[in-house]
Amino acid sequence: MKQLVLKVALDVLKGAPLRLLHTPTGVLCNRNRKLSYFEDSPQYQQLLSFLSSLSLDSQQLETVIASAISKYFAFSMLSHRWDSGELVLRDIEGRSIYNLGGSMEGLAKLQQFCIISFRRNLQWAWSDTCCIDKESSAEVQEAIGSMFSWSRRSSLTIVKLGNVFDGGSFADSVWFTRAWTLQELLAPHTILFYTHDWSLYMNHDTTNHKTDPALLEELQKVTGIAKQHLIDFSPGMGDARLKLHWASCRRTTRPEDFAYSLFGIFQVHFPVIYGEGGENALGRLLAEVISRSGDVSILDW
After folding, report:
1. Does the model's pTM come out above 0.85?
2. Strand 27-29 relative to strand 20-22: parallel, antiparallel, unpaired?
3. Domain contains 283
4. Most buried residue, 39, 196, 237, 262, by most Cβ within 10 Å?
């Protein structure tokens, strides 16, 4: 039974980010360490005890196990505009973020993100600042190609609106001007917006801002994206011109990232080549979309 649980756990973890922060301890964990935490957890012992009482075939057992393991490894994702002093993987590897000192804004943001996730009963959390080894081109390629699916699989996306203060509005936030945050808005099923001081936006006390009619109305106005797409977005080639239009006013620091940030939205994958230039990257993206959709009208996006 333990071997079956391990097999299913490995399958579940294959679809999750390679590294996650363990919110109770603040430690960054790779897949092996995540498995160790699981095997030492009360949930693991409870699962083994529960399984021993069942009379099911192997397929039914795998379904039960996968459900329990997916619940244990449920994770949150941080969506934000990068500030100066963000912590990267090398800064926290082998250390707890709760034990790190200093006044860097990036550290306080990472700590608060994990604390909020923990308080919302999520033991795992992902941030693009420190959960990717940016020195590994293969890992960067995998992360860029997987971020949409990770966001969709996440139990919660926490958005930090760093420049929105009490009484401010979505219209004040630079978060809505960035290309990467488009997929981080559309992909997740559950999202919460937090202001500069980590208060829920407009004090809307809810578990999901995508179910709040007033916030959806405001989101539609500031993004130009209809409510049905905000609530239940479908990636792929459908409405290709419309999707490009949503992205058209957004910006990236690196020019190639405008195209790369749309991989998940269109469900396309091709090599990430930093240095090729924004026009070449966008040209490759448009060629792929036209080839698969047959819609040349997207050139008028």
Report:
1. yes
2. antiparallel
3. yes
4. 262
Is 89 domain-assigned?
no
**Given this model, what pLDDT does residue 56 score?**
83
Please report whether residue 105 resides in a domain.
no
Full domain range(s) for residue 290: 234-300
More confident residue, 52 or 126: 126
Residue 291 lies in a domain: yes
Say if residue 142's pLDDT is above 90: yes
Q: Concatenated DSSP letters for 27-68?
A: EEE-HHHHHHHHHTSHHHHHHHHHHHT----HHHHHHHHHHH
Exposure letters 23-41 (e unless 16+ CB within 10 A, then b)? bebbbbbebeebbebbeee
User: How many domains in the chain?
Assistant: 1
Going through 60-155 in order, the beta strands assigned E by DSSP cover 75-80, 124-126
The distance from CA 95 to its chain's CA centroid, rounded to whole angstroms, is 23
On the CB side of 130, how many CA atoms lie within 13 Å of its CA? 30
